[in-house]
Specification:
alpha+beta, five-stranded mixed beta sheet, four-stranded mixed beta sheet, 9 strands, 4 helices
């Protein structure tokens, strides 16, 4: 019998995008899925151009090593803490997930956001439902940046999933963010 640690590994370019920047590593693992299941809030960058351009000096780590470089160690600890909680990984591996998230303002107006995200956690479409009943829809062409906003392994998101019909109904009634009132 072969141990899972003896399976062959490939080199993956891994990014933790924290909004206005990111941290990068080369991670040797058995699959991209293993990387995502091991480290919270990361993405495996597999575009050939990006991988070819990633020739700068990055830490190279083996996924099975007990110690990780700064930054990646905290993302592994975060994932380890999530692993035993209900809902862990419940949304992972799906091509499209629709979610409801409340935002209480933080300096702006409170609203509820309905998000449609792809398997990489990036928004595909979004509906902002204001407390006054206004509904605005937007898509990738409306956002200057579209980093992953949802870690689909994170158990916090599992109970925020909504039915596709609820998202579509809100999408159809919402006006586009650039439309005049």
């Amino acid at each position: 019998m072969t141990s899972p640690h003896s399976a062959s590994k490939a080199r993956f370019l891994v990014l933790h995008d924290y909004g206005m920047g990111g941290t990068w590593w080369w991670v040797h693992a058995r699959s991209a899925g293993e990387v995502l299941e091991t480290f919270a809030e990361v993405e495996v960058v597999d575009g050939p151009d990006a991988v070819e351009r990633a020739n700068w000096d990055l830490d190279e780590v083996d996924i099975d090593e007990p110690a990780m470089p700064a930054g990646l160690d905290g993302l592994r600890a975060k994932r380890d803490a999530q692993r035993g909680r209900p809902g862990f990984g419940a949304l992972a591996g799906r091509s499209i997930v629709r979610l409801r998230r409340r935002w209480d303002g933080d300096g702006g107006e409170p609203a509820t956001f309905l998000l449609e995200v792809g398997s990489d956690g990036r928004r595909l479409r979004q509906v902002e439902l204001a407390d006054d009943g206004a509904a605005l829809k937007s898509g990738p062409d409306d956002w200057p940046f579209n980093p992953p906003v949802v870690d689909l392994f994170d158990p916090e998101w599992a109970d925020k999933e909504i039915h596709p019909d609820e998202f579509e109904a809100a999408w159809l009634r919402a006006r586009h963010v650039d439309d005049e009132e």
